[in-house]
Structure to design on (211 residues):
């Protein structure tokens, strides 16, 4: 039996994912050591390997087959646009992808004006404005603290993740339009899905049962 390899998005999501996997009897003790600098962890008994990667890289590892299975947010899956199968909504890290800005920007969205949109998710923003709203916009890629952009005049609106809404509120911004709901998904490499169908399908069934 060959190893099945999992790529997990490091951080809170990886911890929660391991919690879910434990419920179906999949454990990886050596991964729990907070002081460990190891990058890859093995469960010899179950012939499983786990590694932690930056969330945006998880779909890449899975598309190329370096990992058979990945767990990552829907935002990253949409933004990266990789070829893979999305098999389960794990319901973790629920939040929303939104267009946000000051209340005064609402009008600019309604009248389809040429506005600037700052975001960490240029592909999601492009798809939303060009293909769904048919509004021409200028997209400005940022890497974090996106809420700053409309405050300092870099853009009229932002496309970003909203979880509790407190970052927006505390900065005088609000949700103007909702693009889609988000949560963590399990994704599978397309070849692995065929070659390891039985093992992967069993895993999917077990996870669905506890969802
Ligand atoms: C995310 C997101 C928002 C914030 C939303 O940022 O980009 O800024 O969380 O959460 P809230 O609605 O509960 O306030 P993150 O903390 O990941 O950091 P970033 O700003 O560097 O992207």
């Amino acid at each position: 039996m060959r190893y099945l390899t999992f790529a997990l998005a490091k951080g809170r999501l990886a911890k929660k994912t391991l919690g879910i996997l434990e419920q179906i009897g999949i454990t990886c003790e050596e991964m729990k050591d907070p002081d460990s600098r190891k990058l890859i962890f093995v469960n010899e008994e179950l012939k499983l390997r786990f590694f932690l990667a930056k969330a945006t890289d998880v779909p890449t590892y899975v598309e190329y087959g370096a990992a058979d299975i990945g767990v990552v947010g829907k935002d990253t899956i949409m933004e990266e646009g990789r070829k893979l199968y999305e098999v389960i909504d794990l319901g973790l890290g629920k939040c929303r992808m939104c267009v946000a800005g000051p209340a005064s920007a609402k009008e600019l969205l309604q009248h389809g004006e040429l506005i600037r949109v700052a975001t960490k998710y240029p592909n999601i923003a492009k798809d939303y404005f060009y293909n769904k709203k048919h509004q021409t916009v200028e997209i400005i890629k940022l890497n974090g603290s996106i809420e700053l952009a409309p405050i300092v005049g870099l853009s009229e609106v932002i496309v970003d993740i909203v979880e509790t809404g407190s970052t927006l509120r505390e900065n005088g911004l609000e949700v103007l339009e909702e693009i889609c709901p988000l949560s963590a998904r399990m994704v599978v490499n397309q070849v692995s899905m065929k070659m390891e169908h039985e093992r992967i399908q069993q895993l999917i069934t077990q996870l669905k049962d506890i969802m």
Observations:
- The mean pLDDT is 95.
- The pocket of PRP is lined by residues 120, 144-147, 160-167 (CB under 6 Å).
- The CA atoms of residues 15 and 32 lie 9 Å apart.
- The first strand starts at residue 4 and ends at 9.
